[in-house]
Amino acid sequence: MLVGAYQLQSPRKRECEDAYSIDREMKLFSVMDGVTPVCKYRSSEGHNAAYLAAQHFKACFEAAADSPDEGHDLKELVLAANAGLWDLMVEAGVNMTRRYEYWATCVVAVWIKGNIIQYAQLGDSMIVAEYKDGRIEALTHDSVKGIQERAVRYRQTLRGQQVELPEEEEFLKDPLLTQFVRSMTNTPEGYSVANGMEEAADYIQYGEVDRSELQGLLLHSDGLYRPGVTAEQVYRQVSEQGLQAYIDQLLEEEIREGRYQDDKTGLLLRF
What we know:
By secondary structure, the protein is of the alpha+beta class. Helix content is 30%, strand content 24%.
């Protein structure tokens, strides 16, 4: 198995809010994309909530190698790390009545156990598989996609239930816009994310695939997307250009066209 990894920090950020882990012995691989926070919390080392959440998951995945358990399930491992994130927030004095201030990260991970590959996902980071018959298919879906439209419909529902909310025009700007959307995490109307909530267990995407059927897997943060490009197309372009060339070219394109430049992280596994 060949493993390629590349990460590029956004020039707009003071630190990279993505993280990744590679454990070749355990065959456990992950990519995290910390959610840029609205809270102003900083650790004693100066790290923000997005960095802390992503690095917490990285540390949890890497710690799994110290106490390997072949019977351990990847879903359980992700949810245990998620529970640990809640404890970290409480210890840091985060106001737990404000969901929009929770530390949060998107997560994708695969654990290869013999001929079985377990996968798990929370958020909008993605896992894409290339099959030996030539098919390229996303194993996960982006639960964040369309969140603004769902938020509008949800506010309409709440108003119909006589819930008092600000006028809709107020939700076109921050901080109210982001606060409302972040309050929808791990709910039927919202999107999944690792933010310490027990409810994440109800929205985590997980499953298994047969390793013998695959010739490649791509794990990546949402920074690898181009407008209008599908996860399957991202895989094809990464496969053709190489991970580093694809990411470097994408950043140059974003700067040239004045688009937002996010952190970018990818792991490409070839069997």
